[in-house]
Amino acid sequence: MKKLFVFMLVLVLISTVFGKITFWTTQVESNRMQRIRALATIFKAQTGIDVEVIPVEENDMLKQIPIAKNAGTLPDIVEGGIEPLLLLGSQNFLDEDLATKIIMDFGDIYDGAARLLSNGKGKYYGIPFHAWVQGIWYRKDMFASQDLGDPVTWYNIALAAKVLNNPAKGVYGIILPKKADAYAEQVFTEVALANGARPIDENGNITFNTPEMIEAFRFYKELGKYSKPGFTTVLDALKGYLNGETAMIFYSTYIMDDIAVEEVQKGRINKFNPQLVKNTGFANKMINTRPTSYGQVVALGITKNANKDEAEKFVKFLMSDKNYVYWVHMAPGGMNPTRKSVAESDAFLDNSVLKRYGKAKIAEIVAALDSVERFEFIDGKVITDMSKLSANFVIGKAINYMFANDWTPQKTAMWAQKEAEKVLGK
């Protein structure tokens, strides 16, 4: 009995010395969980710290946190999108001081990615972990043939769309979303923010009827003149670009394997253009009155009740060197590191998809994280009403009606203003 007591005491001491942490992740797919648990095993072998990895659907995160708090089982670290992390932070669940310290310790996290996690008071609710970005993918060879500048500014984008539009030969300057869906809102987000326009300001005022927003609708309608006819969708854009039917499309970095990998491209259009990856450029921001880009950041949040030393060690372990690369290579192009040194490293490039683009192009693509923004977030504040407008496709419907009914930009903005007021009960 005495020997058993001593043995149990040793086990308690070992667990106290080395510690244990709980990690909630939204990467619930079995192949991704396998990678994450492998990383946890390596971490334990190196540090003695045990990591319990628990998959949680992102839509369930905000429901599970209060339940776990009441049960005394809050995780030490949570991984999830910006919205749940900011909401958890605003509800005082997250350790802002430790998150800020880790960001400062790394010293190379892209500014835009960090800014999305800001608490508005000089600190951060979480640590940006990985991200995808969206922008204009364009045919560099078509642009070069007409001596056109990169499609970054409104002027260059509109000029290229006009010059390269040749419907008689089955080629369009751009394929623009015109259906009432989420893709239309995503594309319009970058257009509007490049002109300093937002549907809802930081005080909750609905602002579709501003001069900046009307001008954004005007520019969008102008691009529509040189777009493929019809109420085009995200799939029309993807297939159109792969087929050589258009010079430009808006798309996220999830397109990268479609462009570069033969079997993936053939799965979309039944043929393969081996020169497409070489002839493809990416505009990593848009500028009219100000620079912006669009994307999604997944972050790591450390809870206030966490075993802080162990949690900090695990976050730094995940975001360092080969461990970080092993994580983001779960989805090449879709998951991009938020640390500049890793995004520019040979190890990150050592992937069957990414190496086809080359280090310079990959660095240019990921650099979009310097200016990434969203309608839903302003200086650490979550604009919760924006999710209601998105759920009701207010922006997508406004764009769809603008083209379907040939509305003026002013009429489109006025309709969106009234529709938003109706949806939000204002």
From TrEMBL:
Transmembrane segments: none annotated. Pfam families: SBP_bac_8. InterPro entries: Bact_solute-bd_prot1 (IPR050490), SBP (IPR006059). It comes from the Bacteria. Signal peptide: none annotated. Keywords: Signal, Transport. Belongs to the bacterial solute-binding protein 1 family. PANTHER family: ABC TRANSPORTER PERIPLASMIC-BINDING PROTEIN YCJN-RELATED, ARABINOSE-BINDING PROTEIN-RELATED. This is Carbohydrate ABC transporter substrate-binding protein, CUT1 family (TC 3.A.1.1.-).
